[in-house]
């Protein structure tokens, strides 16, 4: 409806007032309403996924203290942590589920608070170690060798003119102790390294020790 106001006669101008427009509630066909609903739904969905992901954890056992290779695993050596793995297959690489009943040993050093890999555990009955001392020249031991390292033991000929090749006498044995004698100012030319040979492989020790007395012992570490 349009209302026209006329000035009294003799007024040279007249004024036209535009129609009054009332605000209307948006209907269901309003695009902005549907856009708002879609944004709310998206936020709810994202929030639900975040909350679900926060609960998607696996109980994994970790060490309560540092453990050295050959240590028999005890209940008080472990504590359970809830861990979220981005890849579900990764959880299978670690010790999960119920606490082991016993009979397990650590086959390599583990630091305090470290998640326990299944590959670092062995059967205590099958992995009892026979300790064997080796006298090794300092130059024949990699600087990275320490307690818990896994090494191969070789015997090299000592005669300068001997064309015989070095031969491997033990493989994949764990270092039980590797004390460093001397100091930087007065280093010693040789050192003792104690290796642990599993009892089920002790039958090889006779030949290995016999070969060690005939040449120079060299330790090697494979890239692991």
What is the overall pLDDT average?
77
Q: Poorly predicted ranges (pLDDT <50, ≥5 residues)?
A: 1-6
Largest sheet: 5 strands, antiparallel
By DSSP (H or I, 4+ residues per run), the number of helices equals: 3
Category from helices, strands and their pairing: alpha+beta
Work out the number of β strands.
Answer: 11
Strand order of the largest sheet: 7-10-9-8-11
Strand proportion: 25-35%
The radius of gyration computed from the alpha-carbon positions, rounded to a whole number of angstroms, is 39 Å
Query: Between the first and last Cα atoms, what is the distance in angstroms?
Result: 89 Å
Please give the share of residues in helix: 10-25%
Assembly state of the chains shown: single chain
Order of helices and strands: EEHEEHEEEEEEHE
Instruction: Note the overall shape.
Output: elongated
Characterize the structure shown.
The protein has 224 residues and is of the alpha+beta class. Helices cover 17% and strands 29% of the residues. It contains three helices and eleven strands, in the order ββαββαββββββαβ. It has helices spanning 31-55, 88-91, 205-212, and strands at 3-5, 15-17, 58-63, 78-83, 104-106, 121-123, 129-137, 150-156, 167-177, 190-198, 216-220. Strands 7-10-9-8-11 form a five-stranded antiparallel β-sheet. A two-stranded antiparallel ribbon has the order 1-2. The longest helix is centred in the N-terminal third of the chain and has 25 residues, at 31-55. The protein is elongated and about 100 Å long. The N and C termini lie far apart (89 Å). Mean pLDDT is 77; it is low at 1-6.
